[in-house]
Amino acid sequence: MAADLKKMIPELSNTSVCMRDPKKVQETLESMVKAGSNTVQVISDFDMTLTRFAFNGKRCPTCHNILDNSKLIDDECREQLKELLNTYYPIEIDSSRSVEEKLPLMVEWWTKAHELLVQQEIKKDMLAMAVRESEAMLRESYQLFFDHLHEHSIPLLIFSAGIGDILEEVIRQAGVFHSNVKVFSNYMDFDESGVLRAFKGELIHIYNKREGALLNTGHFKELRTRPNVVLLGDSLGDLTMADGVQDMENILKIGFLNDKVDERKQSYLESYDIVLVKDETLEVPNAVLLYLTGNK
Ligand code: TMP
Ligand code: MG
């Protein structure tokens, strides 16, 4: 690794860190620092990126899993949702299949899961309890991450194929749903008595984040003075989350490689600038962001 980069950000020597081209990382960071933190925006995935993949050897829930495991779902539905997870999650992380092959299957997964959830007539005012009683956990050092971005007025766009209502509740209960946070996700549509009837708008799944970004050009227009992007993701589908950014100058992509490390490491190294292997913390993203704001 370039000695200077290590000096700039000592956390990049952590054992979890892998980089294909440290020199490029260094150049990108130097260029962003020169432009100033008022030109930076952060675009992040939620499930398994801002939340932990595992804790004490046990898997942590995604937004969908928070509902699947809650009292708001009956046992039969829980079984069906678990079956869907057991069928489709191995496909999601299968590096031997192409995105083209996986895409229709992912649409199938999301569509079936949402149909099952709608049948349960979930009540809006029960969501907070489901989140409170869940084992959802944001990654270690999340407080510094959210607070630091807020203090420096750096916009944080959370772009999730999970469930917006649930993820907002997770960050609200953690006390970090600050005014600089904006969420694009699948939102629930409730009727006048507060019962779930459908999901709003276009479905977001893990392989259409590019289309989602392009539908939200208004948001990116507002941020056109911030052409420097730090992108955080855990899936190769997350790489297109910044495609709506106009006149992008620099992008630094940080990817969490949580599962099936040996099979997927090469493709992650080719796609992400910094790969964090089985790292449950936000230590490295925080160090990068502190560097970009002059360690303040
Ligand atoms: P994202 O992290 O890219 O936004 O994607 C959301 C995750 O949600 C993805 O890894 C698959 C997962 N998921 C479930 O756990 N259960 C479900 O029923 C569905 C549809 C997705
Ligand atoms: Mg994810």
Short description:
The chain is α/β, with parallel strands linked by helices and 296 residues long. 42% of the residues lie in helices and 17% in strands. It has 12 helices and 11 strands.
Care to describe what's here?
The chain has 296 residues and is an alpha/beta fold. The chain has 2 domains: 2-51 and 136-292, Rossmann fold, CATH 3.40.50; 61-132, DNA polymerase, domain 1 (Orthogonal Bundle), CATH 1.10.150.340. It has helices at 3-8, 22-35, 63-68, 75-92, 99-119, 127-132, 142-151, 164-173, 209-215, 217-222, 261-271, 283-292; strands spanning 17-18, 40-44, 54-55, 58-59, 156-163, 181-186, 188-190, 196-199, 228-233, 250-257, 274-277. The strands form 3 sheets. Strands 1-11-10-9-2-5-6 form a 7-stranded mixed sheet, with helices on both faces. Strand 3 (54-55) and strand 4 (58-59) form a beta hairpin. Helix 4 (75-92) packs antiparallel against helix 5 (99-119). It is globular and about 55 Å long. The model has no long low-confidence stretch (mean pLDDT 96). The protein binds thymidine-5'-phosphate (TMP) and magnesium ion. Thymidine-5'-phosphate is lined by residues 45-48, 62, 64-65, 81, 84-85, 92, 109-110, 113, 160-162, 206, 235, 237-238. Keywords: Cytoplasm, Hydrolase, Magnesium, Metal-binding, Nucleotide metabolism, Nucleotide-binding. It catalyses: a ribonucleoside 5'-phosphate + H2O = a ribonucleoside + phosphate; N(7)-methyl-GMP + H2O = N(7)-methylguanosine + phosphate; CMP + H2O = cytidine + phosphate.
